[in-house]
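Lab channel / #folding
Pinned by the channel admin:
"Please post every new chain as: sequence first, then the structure tokens as a reply. Keep commentary short and put observations after the output so the thread stays searchable."

First post following the new format, from NK:
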Amino acid sequence: MNESHRIDKWLWSVRLFKTRSESADAVRGGKVKLNGDAVKAAKEIKVNDLVTFRSGTITRTLKVTDFPKSRVSAKLVPDFCEDLTPPEEYERQKAEKQYERPFFYTGKGRPTKRDRRKLDGMS
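Reply from TO:
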């Protein structure tokens, strides 16, 4: 395969971001680091480079092992990168999800008679 690849294209092709523009925005925003340094979206990466980025609440570290010709299926992602993220990061993410409050959306649709009386009582 190729000896190098653009970092934004690699991040997208190994399914770390949904779109290539999302991956380019993350790189431009300084959220992605290559071997510990912030880089531009067009930066060429090589095999054995370390890519670090924020994914939700955890910081993931990946080692580049190969370059796909185009976007690959989720099953093939381990062929192109090695996950070096410490297990503590995943444990922390699991603990945070455990204490996450459910999301309640109030005010959807038309207010009921009861809601309207509460609103009238406020003014």
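NK: Residues 30 and 37 are 9 Å apart (CA to CA).
TO: also worth noting, Strands lie at 4-6, 32-34, 37-38, 44-46, 50-55, 58-64, 81-83.
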